[in-house]
Structures are given as structure tokens and as C-alpha cells.
Amino acid sequence: MDMSNNMANQLRGRWILGALALIVLGLIAACGQSNSTIVTPPAPTTEAVPTPTSEPVMAPQPQSTALPQPTLTPPTPVPTENTPTPIEAPTASAKSTPVPVPDTSTPVLEPEPVPRPASPSLKTPTPAPTATPFVYALPPVDRDLFNLALRLRPEEVIPNSRIIATSAVPLEVGHQDSFLLTNLTDGKSRSINATVQVVSEHANWYVDNDVNIPAQDLKKAARIYEEQVRPAVVSALGDIWNPGIDGDPRLNILHANLSGAAGYYGSRDEFPRQVHPNSNEREIIYMDARSLKTGSDLYMGVLAHELQHAIHWNQDIGEEAWVNEGLSGYATYLAGYRAQSQDSFLKRPQVQLNSWPTDIQTSFPHYGASVLFFTYLSQHYGGPEGMGELVRQQLDGVAGVNAYLAQYETTFTEVFQNWVVANYLDASTGPYGYPDTDVELQNAAKVSRAASLSERQPQFSAQYYDLSALGGHVTLLFQGSTTTRLVGEGCHGGKSCWWGGMADSIDSTLTGRFDLSGLTEANLKFDIWYDIERGWDYAYVEVSKDDGQTWDILRMSRSTKYNPTGNSYGHGYTGSSGVWVDEFVDLTPYVGSEVLIRFEYVTDDA
User: Do 155 and 27 share a structural domain?
Assistant: First the structure.
């Protein structure tokens, strides 16, 4: 670590976001921890701002090791705060016009709970010495929109409660409301007016006033939802927040012409508008009126998918996309329908299971991988009720799956190994098949002669080769890398850096306390590399003069107020820096007192 001792009155550091990480070469490096931890640097001796004498503390998130030589790649950033069901397009271009989803879903029987398999007899290993955990082993903090609004929007009058009403008069057919719709391709919102056209036992069914849906189709959808979809999903996985933010026990289902998805759920609607400016302040699912025929099998499958997202948010406020989307696909299966995305995966099984693309139009194989994995998990480990237990698991991603599987004395990695074999064999019994689902892999590369093959393969994915044409005995030799980068860029100019993590609905912070009381001027310098979902997730540089009660967001040369989604709290980093860049900010307005300086990275929930 290169420590500069001649930078009086300056704080010097390096930072990666998105993957968000920071190498600090000055005072802030020696005194930072993640997850809102505050530490105090050594007292100044001769210079106005002291240079630390210790190495910086790294604080990346779970599923990671210290840079620059990590061993796991976490999921890639996900596109939006909402949890959409994508519309399959003819090309992978993000700018291509979505094509209406064909109504080809095939109904399947609702599965019965699968008995838990007997746990294998395992030898008890000899315990190995356990090292003291490093601070970078701390899990990420879940994003708390209320706390963020109180800290970063002091000009707003934030209500004391998330609930805007404790009870509500039941809506009647003909009731009208205005709503904000999100365009999932660019994050921008537009206002519409919609009317309640059906009221069922557990839902209000709205239709955009500019959209025409036949009354019989809407009544059919309401009947199937109440008799089939909701009972199957809720009995296994749990319920939405009820009566929720608006005091109305009914879910709201809004039909309108959406952009970029067949349906979506956004948790920002669960908060008052003072907390998130684009909230519709009710439990609500959005359904696309153009690509979905209301009441069709495809429509009901999408509705079941989005219902799980609403349930999951109530049971576990933060979860990684591949888990959340996989369980939503599983909810479609529970409701009696088939997720079309699994065919896309079976044609392209090389995608990484615990990863998610930033382009929604290329995400179909990932949806398919995750739904098949959790279908397999259910059929071998716990059935529908077990998946409900997994929904309620507060640990996220692989850690959450491992916590659930501990009762079966197995791990995510072991189940993954069996799963990739099951996708090829689909045996009728044992771990290498799906007892209640027919799976047919459609992409195995045929090898007709002995050869040396060189491939690039993501972690937690599978490439299949058909060697039957070789005949006789075949010897296979495999050589591959044992490590890979956490992010697309290594630490710059030092051995280590702070990484803000790569997960959904997290709030990662690196905070230091500094005494500027004896100074006449002060500066902060750092180097930064970031790759953040533009317009949806943001990182900030902040200063607090009241011991962390409120924070000023500093304007940096590369920060922006671009905020189409309403997710930003001020000047923040979003998008991609491409390379490491230098940043500098004048802290002179804060001299004369003790302050906290913070780097903060906030992601939305999908």
C-alpha cells in the first residue's frame, strides 16, 4: 500500500463501486469499515490532517474474498427496482421493440408436497482451527428507505409510520384513481388514470382508462386468481403485507400498456410518497394489457410470478435476483402453469445460475435456470412448504440456500452438482432427475474426434458434451483457472480496496470520523472505478456535522443528478466509469469541527 505523507489537509483514497470498492491512501483508508461502522483515526500530530500508519481495512460483501485475488464471482447488477417478467424479443438488443408474448403456456398439475429425502450418513470431520473473522465477512445491510429518507432528505417531512391508513373503505366498481407507471426500459414514469372494474375477495382489478379489456376476461381472471392462483401460492409461500400501507386488505392489480415487461411489482409502492416520490402507496401488481390476454394461461402464470415478488418482499425485504426470480417462477408452477423461460435455458444451459444480466431482453435463460433450480430443490428438499421456508430465510443468495439446506446436511454446491446432471439425465428416481417435471436438455455439443477444446465458462454453470461418437474408453483431462475476479477491474495502485458489493436492496457504507477543528482548509481525494445500473442504483460521497443524524451529499466531478426513477437522493455516481478516475472535493466548508465522512452505495430491490 502506497501511503503518501506529504498531502497535508487532504484525505486520499481509491474506490470501486457497482462492484463498488475503495482503495484509500490517506486518512479515510485506515479508519473505515462497511455497514455503517464508524471508527476514529489516530489523533493528529504535526500536519493539519494526519496520515494513517495502518493498512486500510477492506469491506466487501458476502460471497467474496479480499481483492485482488478473490475466489467467487457474485451476481451481476440487476436492472430495476421493480421485479418484472420480461417480454421475449426477437433479438438481444436492449433497444428492440418488445413483441407480445404468445399465449402458449401449458397448464400443469399443482404438485403435491414432496417428502423430505433421508439425509445421507456423513462422517463428522475433525474441526479445523477457525480464524477470527475479518470485517469484510460482515453481511450487507438491507436498504431501509425510511432511514435513507431521514438521513438524506432532511428537507422532507418524513412521516413517523410506513402506514398511511389503518383501515380503508372497500372500493366499489367505478372507483377511479391516478397512478404512476414505470417504463422499465428507461426508468421514467408517466401518470395514468384507471378505474376499478372488478372487486373480488382479495383483489381490486383496475384498468387504465385508455385500455379496453372485455369484462368477461377480467371476471375470468378474478375467478381463477381467487380459486386457483392465490390459494396455491399463499398457502405455500406466505401472504403479502396485509392490510398494508393503505389499510386495504385487498391487493391491487392494474392493467395498462407497459414498456419492457409483461408484468412487474415494485416495493417502492409500499412506502409513503415522502419516502419515495414515485410510490403509488398501495400493494400493487402491474400487468401488461398489450402482450397478455387477460385470464389466459400465460396471464395467470405472470400474475402468480409477480404475486411471489409481493409476498417475498413482505417475508424477506432483501433478496438476490436469481433467488427471487427463481421462486417467482416456482410460484407459476405452484399455480398450475409452466414457465416458458425454462425452455430458453435448456437451449442455452451455459448461463450462470447465481448471476443476473443488466439487459432484461437477454434475461430469459437466467429466468429459466433459476426456476428449474428451485423446482428441483423443492422436489428433492422439502416441497412447497420448504420453499415457503426459503422465502422467509433472511440470509440472501447462496448463503440463504445453504442455511435452508443445513437441515438436510447438504450445501448449495452439492445440490448444484446434482442439478446440472439432472438437467441432462432427468432420471425417474434418485438425485439425477425431476420426479414431477419433464426436462429435456437441447444443447449438448457433439465431439466426433479427440481434440483439445478451449472454452470460457461462467461459475455455477454447465457445458455439456456428447462423446458417444468417440466409442470405447475415453480419457478426459481438464485444466482451468481456480480463481476469478470479483469485478471487472482490479485494485488500482495498491494491494487492496474497498468494495461496496454487488447485490439487491443493499446499503453499503464506509465511514470515518475526522477532527477538522484546527484546520483552515481540507480536501478529499480518492480514485474510483464503478459499474452501476444507470438511473436505478447510486453511490454517494457524504459529510455529516451532527454525528450521522443527517448528511450532506457532496457534488463530485463525475456525479450526477440524473434521476428518472426517483431512486436518487442527490448528486450520485451511476452508470459506468470505464476506468479508474481521480476525484477531488473541497471540504473547507466543514473545517472547524468534527465530521463524519462516508462513502455510500445503495441498490434497489431487483
Answer: no
